[in-house]
Amino acid sequence: MSGPLLMTFNAGSSSVKIGLFSIVGETLKRIAHALIDFRHSPLTFHLVEGKTVFDVELKADHADHLTDVMAETLDWISEHYDLSELTCVGHRVVHGGDEFDGPVLIDDTSLTHIEALSILAPLHQPQALRLIRAMRQVRPELTQVASFDTVFHRTNPDLIRRFALPRALHDRGIKRYGFHGLSYKFIAAELRRRFPEIASGRVVAAHLGSGASLCAMLDGKSQDTSMGFSTLDGVPMATRCGALDAGVILHLLQQEHRPVEEVEDMLYHQSGLKGVSGGISADCRELQASDDPHAKEALDLFTLRIAGEIGRLSMSIGGLDALVFTAGIGENDAAIRTAVAGHLGWMGLTLSEDANQKNAPCISTPESRVKAFVIPTNEERVIADEAFAVSNGKSGA
């Protein structure tokens, strides 16, 4: 395929999603996507082009840097696309702190600021930095742009962002930032496009995947969110604990004398659905298929906390007109949506069983006082749009 191309990288703590877009005038069209999972050795490069799937074992070592991995990955992609036409690369960067209020061109100065924020996101930020540096080594001529997960929540009032801690800590950056902002930006745009009468009102969006959070929006702008200082906060997730009494951490460190590294691993990787189910699974589908009462309890706790957070966020925006489910679980798991809605009947939310089972765009009944929607998210699209805008001298807003 000829013509200019744009590539996106959506880095997680243990994997990276890659998107490839063709540029036709001012229009971007995704033509392929890929995944590299760093949890397995050898690395596997999974490329999807329409209905065609390629799985390739990579020879490169990724222990210290990703330069060799990126070089080999681009070589494989170049067998299908003319990467001499690649003009720009967009990166998802989890944390923008208070430094960034929009996507930015990556240069030496912005890269230094992004690196300084690694202390606030030690699991995710370094992975994005490794990708940025690798692409700088492999294709130094390419324009690179950073899109930040925290930026969408910069509209949260200062009171919402503040912890009840000494003011000096807040001034040093110990505050609520919120995450999954690229996903929520996409959902806000989709609501404006498809349901404009809903988009201008009071909306809570539930991004439910392996990582899960919720966001309260007024007129498409974030007013409050479940995640705070870190991606551990809010509702329980696949393997993360969600909101936790800080005294539990003190107890584990001081009374049980557990090493900090062990506590960190437990909170990020051994808790949530996996922890409450007794290690059965972190996957809702496997828990739903299990007869073990611990599996049911994990799912019950998950949906209870989600519903509770919807209630709290509704308070922040003065009520609720619509609820949006998105991300892997939110988009595909009718049982989870039913369970969440079952706790919210007092708000006037009722789901259509048929529409919910079909993952229809609108899943609430006509009589429901709160409308409910299922809208697939697309973080890669936001990254691509922002990278394209910034590379062309626009704001990317």
UniProtKB/TrEMBL annotation:
Catalytic activity: acetate + ATP = acetyl phosphate + ADP
Alphabetically ordered keywords of this record: ATP-binding, Cytoplasm, Kinase, Magnesium, Metal-binding, Nucleotide-binding, Transferase
Broad class of the protein's primary localization: cytoplasm
Pathway per the UniProt entry: Metabolic intermediate biosynthesis; acetyl-CoA biosynthesis; acetyl-CoA from acetate: step 1/2
Entry's localization field: Cytoplasm
Cofactor note: Mg(2+). Can also accept Mn(2+).
Gene Ontology BP, a term: acetate metabolic process
Record GO cellular component, one term: cytosol
Annotated residues for binding of ATP: 17, 207-211, 283-285, 328-332
Active site positions: 149 (proton donor/acceptor)
Cofactor: Mg(2+); Mn(2+)
Similarity annotation: Belongs to the acetokinase family.
Function (record text): Catalyzes the formation of acetyl phosphate from acetate and ATP. Can also catalyze the reverse reaction.
Name of the protein: Acetate kinase
